[in-house]
Specification:
150 residues, mainly alpha, Multidrug-efflux Transporter Regulator, Chain: A, Domain 2, 2 strands, elongated, cytoplasm, DNA-binding, CueR
Length: 150
Amino acid sequence: MNIGKTAKASKVSAKMIRDYEQIGLIPAASRTDSGYRAYTQADINQLHFIRRARDLGFSVSEISDLLNLWNNQSRQSADVKRLAQTRIDELDRRIQNMQHMAQFKSLIHYCAGDTLPDCPILHTPGQPDDSEPDPEACTGAMGWQSVGKS
């Protein structure tokens, strides 16, 4: 199967297939007599695996490790679980960071956005992670006072 049909079947672009070959994520395809790349169903299966791993957020290096495990019939499931757990732990950290960003977003409502220097957004980094700004303690055009300044 040529690269165009392989790209369509695997839902991986022809450019990415070439890139994966170049970086060694997949083996170089065999060539037809006229020099075109020729792929097999096994290649398509591997590309599906890569695409799914990318969609799950695995890095190229991690995907390479997963492919080695996938192709190794004497693999230990503990190795696969370790890689998956590392990915899950990273995703949990990212989720927690995004939740903190969402809390930070709420500070926009407490900032007067005027010409005065006081703004609760700038005072928050010194506060504990679980604290909320006190809009009563802020001043600006709305009559709020400065928070946490010494």
